[in-house]
Amino acid sequence: MIPQSFIQDLLTRVDIVDVVGRYVPLKKGGANFMGLCPFHNEKSPSFTVSPTKQFYHCFGCGAHGTAIGFLIEYSGVGFVEAVKDLAQNVGMVVPENDDKIPPAQRAAYQAQSLALSEAMTIACDFYRQNLRNAPDAVAYLKSRGLTGEVAAKFGLGYSVDNWDSLRTVFPDYEATALVESGLVIDRTDEEGNNRKRYDRFRDRIMFPIRNTKGQVIGFGGRVMGNGEPKYLNSPETPLFQKGNELYGLFEARQAIRDAGYVLVTEGYMDVVALAQLGFPQAVATLGTACTATHVHKLLRQTDQVIFSFDGDGAGRRAARRALDACLPHAGDNKIIKFLFLPKEHDPDSFVRELGAEAFERQIHDAMPLSQFLLNEVTAEADLNTSEGRARAQFDAKPLLQIMPPSSLRLQIVRGLAQLTQSTAAEIESLFELVKPIARARLAPPRGNRPAPVGIERQIIRLMVAHPSLTSELDDAALAAVANFAPDRAEMLAQLIEASRTMGAQANFASLAEHLREGGAEFESLIAEIAAQAESDIETARMELTDAIRKTKMESLKVELAQLAATGMGTDDARNRYRELISQQEYLRRQAEAEMAQR
């Protein structure tokens, strides 16, 4: 786990205006910078970036966060990768769990990655240059209906029909990086001698594969004739793992947000052709089955994923593997569908023959995950017999067991129960599902508790906006707030611990990032603070002092009323009453003195 102190230091060094400005054109507007929101369609800028708060906020869709959050949402990378990206830009080294690796070994690994990345970039530029001087390759792309514009968008290139054409751009053709990156192949005899090196890709249309940062990490090469294999992919390398990457995701990110869904196809040409035909939100797996990592990456970009498969047996098998990969991530706020085209069509041919509107209808009518799952487990079962119904339940059990507890899982359980003449509770018990839903009422999630209101909200809001003030409060002040709002004790404890850990240098951005993972209750406050102009800390300090004094006064009033109700028949009660009156008078004089000074 990355230490919170490192995150705080990173956010202090990084300028969010520079980070966001790499992806969104920004213009100065008062104290902030403005631009068109990258997370929803808009014609007038409502997206603001605050250099003082180091926070972004969209008044249109409500998106907000720190520089780390922006990279996560915009690029679809994970938290650790976003932190590493930002750290690299400001010369910081992220502390990791593998710090026991010797520095020399770590440096060697970093040097290798840099060399591989540089080799891939040089090769990509070389292949793109070749395409300009390859009339047969250009003619082939035109025959597939592709324009120069879409070819340029995806960086398409051409590898000439030569055994060592890369020698012209790599002076050291014997460099280790060329083999490690998969660009060339070393051939040896049975004894390991007489090594001969040659280019892996020859006479093929080249599709560069990019990671979420836009860096080229691999290639797919397609023959233009009838050669085999039709597609040749880069091998697994330190840069490229097929099970982790999706072709076209980098190019499709904005289109996915605009469309509200991502379309997952089976090949490079499907992605490029669909972009040409008005569906730029398409991506493809890289010659391998869809994995859980693929699904996780897609669901970072959008809440709706639609898989498009051929209607033949191979397409059905691929869809089933995709279903298995999706189930651990299936939830109530995610929509996953499966589109099966007629056997004679792929997405490219379908759109060209029947039109974009017909394809959009196919997408709209795609089969939901729940229906596909039930179809799969009942397809070969005779539901008119006990044995057939039992077999359907047997096939469904491992699929439902890997789904997270959710309303969606309950709906599928109920559907299966109806098909197999059972009850939802019986299936949950029989399948030993974790956290059964049909048999127990779920408690409301922590994030759905009522938001704090009134004076308690004012106090918490001030502590979130200016976390450094929290470290100035003594234990008596904090106890007064906790006593006044006992139902917020956990929330206050979390806030106090985070702020005090950060110390006097704590700021809104670093605290908001700290609360991002487990602070759903703070979300509305963070959004509210992000949307407003930054408040002066001295004013905030006075407001916080006044608010805490009010909580103390309210607590004194409550205890005085309780004592009065008892009749104060004992000396202890009378003494306590006088003590409370004295405290009340002290607070009143304190308030008057501070008002006079202002």
UniProtKB/TrEMBL annotation:
Keywords: DNA replication, DNA-binding, DNA-directed RNA polymerase, Magnesium, Metal-binding, Nucleotidyltransferase, Primosome, Transcription, Transferase, Zinc, Zinc-finger. Pfam families: DnaB_bind (PF10410), DnaG_DnaB_bind (PF08278), DNAG_N (PF08275), Toprim_2 (PF13155), Zn_ribbon_DnaG (PF01807). Binds 1 zinc ion per monomer. One of its GO terms (biological process) is DNA replication, synthesis of primer. A zinc finger (CHC2-type) spans 37-61. It catalyses: ssDNA + n NTP = ssDNA/pppN(pN)n-1 hybrid + (n-1) diphosphate. One of its GO terms (molecular function) is DNA-directed RNA polymerase activity. Its cofactor is Zn(2+). The keyword DNA damage does not apply. Its EC number is 2.7.7.101. SUPFAM superfamilies: DNA primase core (SSF56731), Zinc beta-ribbon (SSF57783). Gene3D superfamilies: 3.40.1360.10, DNA primase, catalytic core, N-terminal domain, DNAb Helicase, Chain A, DnaG, RNA polymerase domain, helical bundle, Zinc finger, CHC2-type domain. InterPro entries: DNA_helicase_N/primase_C, DNA_primase_core_N_sf, DNA_primase_DnaB-bd, DNA_primase_DnaG, DNA_primase_DnaG_DnaB-bd_dom, DNA_primase_Znf_CHC2, DnaG_bac, DNAG_N. Coiled coil: none annotated. GO terms for cellular component: cytoplasm; DNA-directed RNA polymerase complex; primosome complex. It is an enzyme of class 2 (transferase). Residues 260-342 form the Toprim domain. It comes from the Bacteria. Contains an N-terminal zinc-binding domain, a central core domain that contains the primase activity, and a C-terminal DnaB-binding domain. HAMAP family: DNA_primase_DnaG. RNA polymerase that catalyzes the synthesis of short RNA molecules used as primers for DNA polymerase during DNA replication. Monomer. Interacts with DnaB. Belongs to the DnaG primase family. This is DNA primase. It comes from Glaciimonas immobilis. The gene is dnaG.
